[in-house]
From TrEMBL:
It comes from Blastomonas fulva. Pathway: Purine metabolism; 7-cyano-7-deazaguanine biosynthesis. Residues 26-242 form the Radical SAM core domain. It catalyses: 6-carboxy-5,6,7,8-tetrahydropterin + H(+) = 7-carboxy-7-carbaguanine + NH4(+). Substrate binds at L20, Q21, G22, R35, T96. Its EC number is 4.3.99.3. It is an enzyme of class 4 (lyase). The keyword Metal-binding applies. S-adenosyl-L-methionine binds at W45, C46, D47, G98, S144, P145, K146. This is 7-carboxy-7-deazaguanine synthase. Binds 1 [4Fe-4S] cluster. The cluster is coordinated with 3 cysteines and an exchangeable S-adenosyl-L-methionine. Binds 1 S-adenosyl-L-methionine per subunit. Pfam families: Radical_SAM. The gene is queE.
C-alpha cells in the first residue's frame, strides 16, 4: 500500500478540493487541489501553518499557536486519493502543501495510477529537486523560493543545486512572495545568480486579507512594470477569504 500524508479541511477529511487556481501563471484555471502535509521550511508568515506547525515544533510563526498533528493531517492510500480526484471530472491537478516534493515516491505512484490524461502542476519552495520517477509526470512547476523576510536561514531556503536545476527547466515559473519594496533587490540578485529571465518571474503580495493585498498591490504593480516582472494576485483570498479547502 502506498499512501500520502495529506492536510485536512477538518479532522478526518483530506484537503482535496476543486477550485480556481488563485495564484501564479495558471491563475483562474479550474483545478483539483491536493494539499500535502509536512514542510522542510518554517516561514514566519506561512498561510498554511496547519500543514507543518505541529505541537512541539520549535520555530516561530506569526500570530498562531501550534496545531495538533492528528487533527490536521492524515494518511490516505493513493487509490483513494485517485478516486477522489476523478470524482471532480477535472483534468488539471495542483499538488500543493506544505512542501509536496517531500513525498515524491507516492506522488509518482499516484500519477501513474491516474494515467497520462492529467495536467500535473506542482507548488514547491524550490529546495527539493525532482526525482527521475516523478519528473516524468510533471507538466508545470510553480516555484516559490523564499526570501530573508520568511525567517528561514539562507542555507535552508535556497538550495543552490536544486534552484540551478529549476532555472534551466522550461516548465518552471518563479513566484516570489513580497512584503516590502526592498525585497526587489534580493529577487534581482537571485535572478542574476541563476540566470532566470524576467518573464519567468512573478511577484505576489504577502497577505491573507483583501485589504492587505490591495494595499501592497499599489506599490507592487509599478515595481513589476519597472522591472519587467509579472504581477500575481491571490484570487482565492478575494473570493473566499483565508479558509481551508478553497
Ligand atoms: S515553504 Fe510554503 S508551506 Fe512551507 S512554511 Fe514556507 S510558506 Fe509554508
Amino acid at each position: 500500500m502506498t499512501s500520502l500524508r495529506l492536510a485536512t479541511v477538518h479532522p478526518g477529511e483530506p484537503e482535496i478540493f476543486h477550485s480556481l487556481q488563485g495564484e501564479g501563471i495558471s491563475l483562474g484555471r479550474p483545478s483539483v487541489f491536493v494539499r500535502l502535509s509536512g514542510c522542510n521550511l518554517a516561514c514566519l508568515w506561512c498561510d498554511t501553518p496547519y500543514t507543518w506547525y505541529f505541537t512541539g515544533h520549535n520555530a516561530r510563526h506569526r500570530g498562531c499557536e501550534t496545531f495538533v498533528r492528528r487533527e490536521n493531517s492524515l494518511t490516505l492510500d493513493i487509490a483513494e486519493v485517485a478516486r477522489r480526484i476523478a470524482e471532480f471530472g477535472c483534468r488539471h491537478i495542483v499538488f500543493t502543501g506544505g512542501e509536496p516534493l517531500l513525498q515524491q515516491p507516492a506522488l509518482a505512484a499516484l500519477c501513474a495510477l491516474l494515467g497520462p490524461d492529467y495536467h500535473i502542476e506542482i507548488e514547491s519552495n524550490g529546495t527539493v529537486a525532482l526525482t527521475a520517477a516523478f519528473d516524468a509526470h510533471v507538466d508545470q512547476l510553480n516555484l516559490s523560493p523564499k526570501l530573508a523576510h520568511s525567517g528561514n536561514a539562507a542555507d535552508l531556503r535556497v538550495n543552490e543545486t536544486s534552484l540551478a536545476g529549476y532555472a534551466r527547466d522550461p516548465r518552471a515559473w518563479f513566484k516570489f512572495v513580497v512584503a516590502s519594496p526592498e525585497d526587489a533587490d534580493e529577487i534581482d540578485a537571485l535572478a542574476s545568480q541563476y540566470a532566470i529571465a524576467a518573464e519567468r518571474i512573478l511577484l505576489m503580495p504577502e497577505g491573507t486579507s483583501p485589504a492587505v493585498l490591495q494595499q501592497r498591490a499599489h506599490w507592487l504593480a509599478p515595481l513589476c512594470l519597472d522591472r519587467g516582472w509579472r504581477f500575481t494576485d491571490r484570487l482565492h483570498i478575494h473570493l473566499y477569504g483565508d479558509t481551508r479547502g478553497t
